[in-house]
Amino acid sequence: MGKREMDDEQRERMDDLKRLTWRGVLTGGTFLVFAIVAGVFLLDDWTAFLFWGSLTLVLTIVVFVSQWRYIRRGPFPRLPGRRPAARAVRG
Predict the structure, then answer these.
(1) How far is it, in rounded angstroms, from Cα 31 to Cα 49?
(2) Above 70 in pLDDT, residue 83?
(3) Closest to 17 measured CA to CA, from 71, 55, 57
(4) Dihedral (CA of 54, 57, 63, 65) sign
(5) From CA 70, how far away is CA 80, in angstroms rounded?
(6) Is 7 left (phi over 0), alpha (psi -120 to 50) or beta?
(7) What pLDDT score does 32 carry?
(8) What residues contact residue 48 under an 8 Å CB cut-off, 6+ apart?
(9) Mean pLDDT confidence for 2-21
(10) Which of 2, 26, 33, 48 has the fewest beta carbons under 10 Å from its own?
(11) What angle in degrees, to the nearest 10, is found between the helix axes of 50-73 and 8-43?
């Protein structure tokens, strides 16, 4: 099976996902460093808050993988409803 090309909507969603993932990695890394430093200074044990510090990174990875699979699967289902052209201004 060959690789499918992404359409514009998939590309846009993938860019948003990458931006969200990098933000999550930076935030999670900062929180992990803070948890290690807090564990060292407060409890003299660097592993004291390690679970809570690494939890944000794990959640970021889980969200990335699940959303990446959804985006690559495409096309996206559309909800039934009014079309933009059907919204006529009544005067």
Answers:
(1) 10
(2) no
(3) 71
(4) negative
(5) 20
(6) beta
(7) 92
(8) 38, 39, 42
(9) 86
(10) 2
(11) 170
Q: Are 4 and 71 a contacting pair, CB within 8 Å? A: no
| pLDDT classification of 1: cutoffs 50, 70, 90 | very low
Which residue in the block uniquely carries the two structure tokens 């003299």?
44
Rounded Cα distance between 46 and 48, Å, is 6
**Token pair of 81, please?**
């409803």
Distance in angstroms (rounded) separating the CA atoms of residues 44 and 76:
51
Burial 48-64 (b: 16+ CB within 10 A, else e): bbeeebeebbeebeeeb
SS3 71: helix
